DNA sequence: ATATTTTTAGACAGACTTGTCCAAATCGTC
DNA sequence: GACGATTTGGACAAGTCTGTCTAAAAATAT
């Protein structure tokens, strides 16, 4: 029995590898061309796989969309909570640490390939397949907001912030962080880290002017 | 010669009426189905017009998209500047007037049919027809931001606000106003006026906590 | 080395679109 | 009522796409 000889895995290794490669290619094509414009031959070619294999794995085109959305949603959710774990719970320099956190959030979640894909596909097909995205709707942003709100509430309790409604504050934090990026993201531009840092800096400065406890002397 | 007997107009009245009805129907269908999924027969039916008439007026499908985007962009731009004219230049109760302004902005521009259409179509096709939306990119948001920034700068000069960079403040104002609406808008829900008012209230409160000069006593 | 499963390439029918063409019908004007 | 322009409905070719089927090839397990 050699090293990689676990039957259950070795049998399905290429199988699941192809599965992944199909989902990745499908995500890319769906995102680029939209659901109606997406071509299964193109997806197969881009995945390095024959068309029949795509049908073997996921059956329908609609079914493929479901699988893709499920996959990307999971991946993105994992990224979000991984990043949320780096929230500055015991800050030394709150402003700098919030800026760094915002940059991480944008780089790892909102502005990467998965984030762009979900945003685009949700807006395009959300109303056509409501049941598909209903899960995301509450498992995605709602949980993110709640988790972020809890972090801000703790900071407020520890005397760093002065917040009436942590949920509103969390939503506004995210809105401010994205304020300067909306335009670029809509057009699918890739954002330089410098842009992300600038946007985060502006956002955190305003956020702390509104919610920070240690008011700066207004010269 | 009767009243409405200007030949140039009466001849083209039904003509241009059909033109408009086609563009409206096309906007609706493009928005619902995406460009690739949009069906010219459906557009014609929804416009109450034969397919041939659609081709007579706009030629290509791509050409039709161009016409639709141009029309909607113009209409939206007009709405934005109309609403910008109601900005509280000489406020009595700044907070209340900014809330009312924000509600107007959302109702007349960002959240109506045209706003939703442009957002959706831009995200879906923006990268495929960059030249089409390049104009909008600077004529739309950039001009809006600049105009709004000028208003805020004037309020700051008059002693109502304390703003370092009016451009950033304007973008952040709009971002805050949309903070609570993102989710609903992505799914195409229609927003009640109550929701709009609540969102605007939250936004303006935070905005004024950050930029208002008369700091509230922090009990 | 052989048996079993997966993958492949290609053909295929069925359906759907786009864009054009044309003769008949409709509309507004004189 | 007759004329000219626009509109209509339907037919049409050419193309694309989905989803299925088949037999051959490749990969994997025994």
Explain the overall architecture:
The structure is a homodimer of 219-residue chains. Chain A folds into 2 domains: 50 residues, Orthogonal Bundle (Arc Repressor Mutant, subunit A); 141 residues, Tetracycline Repressor, domain 2 (Orthogonal Bundle), CATH 1.10.357.10. Chain A is built from 10 helices and no strands. The N terminus and C terminus of chain A are likely disordered. By secondary structure, the first copy, chain A, is an all-alpha fold. In chain A, α1 packs antiparallel against α2 and α4 packs across α6. The structure holds a DNA duplex (30 and 30 nucleotides).
Main attributes of the structure:
homodimer; 219 residues; mainly alpha; Arc Repressor Mutant, subunit A; Tetracycline Repressor, domain 2; 2 domains; 76% helix; elongated; disordered N terminus; DNA-binding
């Amino acid at each position: 029995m050699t090293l990689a000889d676990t039957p259950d895995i070795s049998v399905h290794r290429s199988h699941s590898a192809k599965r992944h490669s199909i989902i990745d290619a499908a995500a890319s094509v769906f995102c680029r061309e939209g659901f109606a414009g997406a071509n299964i031959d193109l997806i197969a070619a881009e995945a390095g796989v024959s068309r029949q294999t795509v049908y073997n794995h996921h059956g329908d085109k609609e079914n493929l969309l479901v699988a893709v959305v499920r996959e990307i949603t999971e991946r993105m959710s994992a990224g979000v909570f991984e990043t949320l774990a780096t929230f500055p719970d015991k800050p030394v320099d709150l402003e700098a640490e919030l800026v760094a956190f915002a940059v991480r959030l944008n780089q790892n979640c909102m502005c990467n390939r998965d984030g762009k894909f979900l945003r685009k596909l949700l807006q395009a097909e959300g109303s056509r397949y409501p049941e598909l995205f209903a899960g995301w709707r509450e498992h995605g942003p709602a949980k993110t907001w709640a988790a972020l709100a809890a972090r801000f509430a703790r900071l407020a309790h520890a005397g760093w912030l002065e917040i009436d409604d942590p949920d509103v504050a969390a939503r506004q934090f995210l809105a401010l962080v994205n304020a300067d990026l909306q335009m670029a993201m809509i057009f699918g531009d890739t954002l330089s880290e410098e842009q992300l840092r600038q946007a985060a800096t502006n956002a955190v400065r305003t956020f702390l002017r509104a919610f920070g406890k240690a008011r700066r002397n207004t010269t």
